[in-house]
Amino acid sequence: MLGHSVRALVRDPAKLQFKHYALEPMQGDALVAEDVEKATESQDAVIYALGVGKCPHFFSQTTSLLLCAMQKHQVRRLIAITGIGTGDSRGHGGWIYERVILSLFTKSIYEDKDVQENLIRESDLDWTIVRPASFNNGPLGGRLRATDQLEGVTISGISRADAAAFVLHQLKSAEWLKKSPSVGY
User: Fold this and answer.
1) Which residues contact residue 164 at a Cβ distance below 8 angstroms, ignoring those fewer than 6 apart?
2) Neighbour count for residue 148 (Cβ, 10 Å)
């Protein structure tokens, strides 16, 4: 965890496969305001890294609750992970990803992620929206690139390890402050 202590809001701490002395799992639900507020209290920053949820507007609803909790507890730094295919990154994830996965299987999810990103942009927080390409289980240390200049660019994949390292770096960097870099190879 590179010198950080981490509080992770999780539905079921018993299912958490990773254990570390600097990791504090907190049982709760990202759709319950009290749980989000409790998880946010006394934190220096928040990394939003939720997967697909159990309701149609999961990303926008959980982000709304998170933004309120961050305001209440005066937490300024937010790094939110959305994905290639959100906002102006649509069309830059490769043919199969864009034409098959995104258009046939995840269209409504990415429409909600568009709403999520707009909520974050409209906030007065110090935010970075990270848009990783499709995840793979490759090692740390790939030839990662991050860009918000997408004309003529296709970003087709990224290891979870490289994406995590990029996100952690943003905690101490202003390079992508109030920007939405697409990251991958």
Assistant:
1) none
2) 14
Pairing of strands 77-81, 45-48: parallel
What is the tally of structural domains in the chain?
A: 1
11 vs 45, 62, 159, CA distance in Å? 20, 14, 25
Do 162 and 125 meet the contact criterion of CB atoms below 8 Å apart?
A: no
For the stretch 165-179, pLDDT in tens is: 999 999 999 999 999
Residue with tokens 């790939």: 142
Q: pTM of this prediction? A: 0.88
Task: Give the three-class secondary structure for 23.
Answer: strand
For 92, the domain range is: 6-184
* Nearest of 108, 127, 107, 126 to residue 117 by alpha carbon: 127
Contact (Cβ atoms closer than 8 angstroms) between residue 132 and residue 180: no
Asked if residue 53 belongs to a domain, the reply is yes
Residue 137 located in a structural domain = yes
Q: Which two tokens stand for residue 177?
A: 């402050």
C-beta of residue 125 within 8 angstroms of C-beta of residue 70: yes
- Residue 1 in any domain: the answer is no
Specify the CATH number for the domain of residue 163.
3.40.50.720
